Structures are given as C-alpha cells and as structure tokens.
Amino acid sequence: MAVKVVDRSPLNLWEKTYLPQVLGGLKITLDQMLKPKITLQYPEERPVIPNHYRGVPTLVRDPNGREKCVSCQLCEFVCPPKAIRITPGEISEDDEAAHVEKRPKDFEINMLRCIYCGMCQEVCPEEAIFLQDTYSVSGYSREELVYHKAKLYELGGTLPDQHYKWDRKKEAAEKAAAGGHH
Amino acid sequence: MPPELIADILWKVLFAVIFVVVIMTFAAYSVLAERKVASWIQGRVGPNRTALPGLSAIPVIGPHLVKMGIWQPLADGVKFLFKEDPIPGHVNKLYYCLAPAIALIPALTTMVVLPVGQYTVDGIAHPIVLANIDIGILFILAVSSLGVYGIVIGGWAANSKYPYFGGIRSSAQMISYELAMGMSILPVFMWANGTEPGLGGLSLFNVVTSQQAMWLGVWMPVPAFIFLTALFAETNRLPFDMPESETELVGGFHTEYGSFKFGLFFVGEYAHMVIGSAVFTILFLGGWNFLPDFGIDGLEWLSDPWSRMGWFGSVLSVLYFIAKTMFFVFFFMWVRWTLPRFRYDQVMNLGWKYLVPAALACIFIYALIIGLIDIAFAVEETPAIVQ
Questions:
Q1: What ipTM describes this predicted complex?
Q2: Cα–Cα distance measured from residue B207 to residue B311, given in angstroms and rounded to the nearest whole number
Q3: Which chain regions cross the lipid bilayer (chain B) (predicted)?
Q4: Which residues in chain A are contacts of B334 at CB distance < 8 A?
Q5: What residue segments make up the domains of chain A, in order of their start?
Q6: Which range is most confident: A77-81, B114-118, B275-279, B368-372?
Q7: For the ranges A107-111, B36-40, B287-291, which has the lowest average pLDDT?
C-alpha cells in the first residue's frame, strides 16, 4: 500500500496568525457566493418528474374511455396501511361496458394513510391503478384528503392499453356464439 | 426663549431624527443583507417573496424589488411588533424590560459624534455631523461599550442559567477587547495630530482629513487588524459571538426574550455593526476621501473631489462614505459565514495574550516612527501642541 507522508512541519510565524487560512476561507465563501444558484423557485417552477415516479395512486381509463377498474378489491386487500376502500357496483345490461365484469361504485383512497408503496399498482390484474407524477397533496380537512372515484380518475387520465382484455373477450364470445372455430 | 434658539433646537431635533431614521433603516436592511449574504454563501437564494400590495405591482421594478427581498425587513419588523409579548414568570420584570432598550440606546447614541461627510464654506471643509466635539472617538468608545450593560442586565434579569452565562461571557469579552481596541487606535491619533500642524484632538473629522495622503489602513495594517478584530468582539459578531453562541447557550443572553424585546436586541446588534463599520472606515479607510493622493501637490482633487462640487459634492461625500461603510458591513457578514466560532478560552487567549501586547507594541513602534518623521521633516512646522 502506498504510504502518503503528511507534511507536519511546525507552523511558521505567518501561519501561526491563522491569517492564511482565514483568507483562504474567505476566498472559498466568496467563490461560493458568486456561483450561479441552482435553486428551483418551487411553486412557479416544478421539478422534472422522472418516469415511473411513485406519486399519488390514481385510477386510469383505457384509450376508449372505459374505466379499467373492475372492483376486484385486490388493491384494497393488499394495501398495507388500509388506505383504499372500494364499493363494488354492478354494470347494467344496457351499458356500453356491459361486457365488463363490474365497476366500482365508489373508490376511496385516503391520501393521509397512503404510504406510496405501490403495491396496489403491482397487484392490480387490470392495470387500472397507477402511481403517477402527482406529488403535492394538500387540503384543509381530513375529508378533503380522502380522494373519491371522480377525483382519482381526474388525476389518472388515460394511459395506453396493450391488451384490451375485455374487448377481446367479448369478440371471442361473439365469435363462439356465431359458431366460430371451436 | 429667543426664536433663533427655538429654531436652532428644532433644526437639531430634525437632524437627529434624520440620523436615527437613516441608521435604523441601515440596521434593518443589514438584517436583510445578512440573510441574503448567508444565503448566497450557502448556495441559496434568500428572501425573495415578500411583496407589498401596490408597490410590487409596478412593472419591471416591482417584481425585481420583491426578488431582492426589499420588503422583507418591513415584514420582519411588523411581525416583531405584533407578536404576543409574554414575560416569563421567573424574570426580574423591571430589568427584563429595561435591558433591550439599554442595549439599543448606546448604539444609537454613538452616532451623535460620527461625521458622515463634509461640506465646504469659504474653502474650509466642515464635517457633516450632529455634534462636532473634540473627544469624538473617546465618546464613541465610552458610549458604545455601555451596550454591554444591556446584555449583562438582560442575561441576569432572565434568571436562568444560559442567559446568565451569556451575560457573564459578554462582560468578560468586552473588557478584554475594549483594551486592545483603545490601544490600537492610539497610533491613528498620534499620526493625525503629530505630523500635520493644526489643533490636536480626538475629533474624527481631524482623522479623516489627515488621511488624504494615505489611508491609515495601508500605513498601519497591524493596528487596523487589531481594531477590526476587537470590533468583531465588541459587536458580538462571529467568530466572537460568545454571549449568543446558540450551539452552547441556546440563545445566550436573549434566550428568554421574544417578540419586540428580542427585536430591539437584534436591531441593536446591527446598529452596533453599522456604527462600528463607520468608525473603522473613518479611522483606517480614509472616511469619505475618494482615493489617497500620496501627498503629491496637484493631486488633491483625487482625495477630495467633493469640495469642488458644492452641495452636490457634500451629498457625494456622504454617499461615498456610506458605500465604504456598507462594504465593511458586508465584510462582517462575509466573515461570519466563513469562520467557526472560537472557544471561550481561545477568545480570552487571543485577546489578552496576542492582541493587547501587539497593540502595545504598535503604540511604541508608531510613536517612534512618527517621532522620527517629526524630527526629520516637520520641525519648522511646529505642531499645535507646542504652541
């Protein structure tokens, strides 16, 4: 191992006054003072949120505007702090999305309880809940911070869908009914 | 009373009010400057949000002023003024209430003898000063060190141990550095009175006029350094803020204080700093002299361009003096955010073992040099003291 010999010669008179060190320190702080600032003026300027950031959990729609959640309640069961509560609801026969199993009547996420762990997103079989780039949550009361379905869809917006699972299922059922390839 | 006397008194009161307002404004804005300088040194931006409705809406300038934090001292002051002002149950109420005032008043009183510029009447320069008394610097030294009573009384009246420590430290520190400070300026007055013919005295105006050839900070760097160090200690600024030293003594002498009483202590400290910087500028930095003229004939316009410009020159001399003072206020802050605090025993060591002997040595050496210069060059121009 290389040995680095540290110079420990006694201080000379000029060094003993500490002035060289003081002046050096003043120079460092002056340089620091003149450097351009990298401060982000927060409320006006927002940081760039990286992809796959784990912000507030939100509900998303598929490109056709169908709400993807089928209220299977897996996220509700997996949620460690029990922040999610789902009230499942039936879809009436004459609905456009009647071929989908169910839809939540209400979907509540208590943002005061949520720990942003992302397990709801991980567990969701429908890819309906995503932790997206909203990071700043504030409100005047506890009730206000329990986000309901409408608010969650508003935050979530629409995400691309690779599967169109329910539409394909409907197609397959229709083909089978028409005496398809089976 | 004759009407002239009443008019005279009214004028003096008006001038005094102007002085107080200006110094207090500078003290308030020093607080802002401190916050800004601290931020810059730490890589931050500093206060840039406080806006006055109306004034901040002025296009271009308004937002810029807000960004500079111009309105912040107003907000701070209003906050201090309107906060609840509780008096803890265990304090000595009379002294507790008295202490902040005692801390602030000496700082404001010293400005009475502080010349801030010059005006010329019939070719003779006069200082712009509230009271041009002979004992100028003596008055400043005497009164400004009274400020320590505010701190000591505050620390004692608070009746708990950390403020008490702060007060005790403050008094010990003040005594130690007062000595070095007083001695370090003796060479200045020897110089101001020795080689130039004219009335001897401790007037600060005299000191400034004697620096037209060369600023004393250049020709007397060691006394200047000692004075500056002692000034840091006297104004309780880092690296000598023993009375406050928040890491050891919570808040030091003002631990038990809040709201406006704390505000008075705070402004008092900054007023002290502004006055101290002004005194340093006068003693060692040539006051309002523009640049040193090295005693060369025909170059007087370099050191004193003000007397050739009438009243406008007077205004410029004041502004130039303020600019120099502000630089030193900035220097105070710059040092504060650069150096760590000394340990208490180091402060005492430095004061007694180094600064006091060095100041003494300076007195002897400069007395010798000034005496030799007197003998060699200025014998025929008999100094006024001999007359």
A1: 0.77
A2: 22
A3: 12-32, 94-116, 128-153, 174-192, 212-233, 270-291, 311-334, 354-379
A4: 26, 29-30, 33
A5: 57-160
A6: A77-81
A7: B287-291
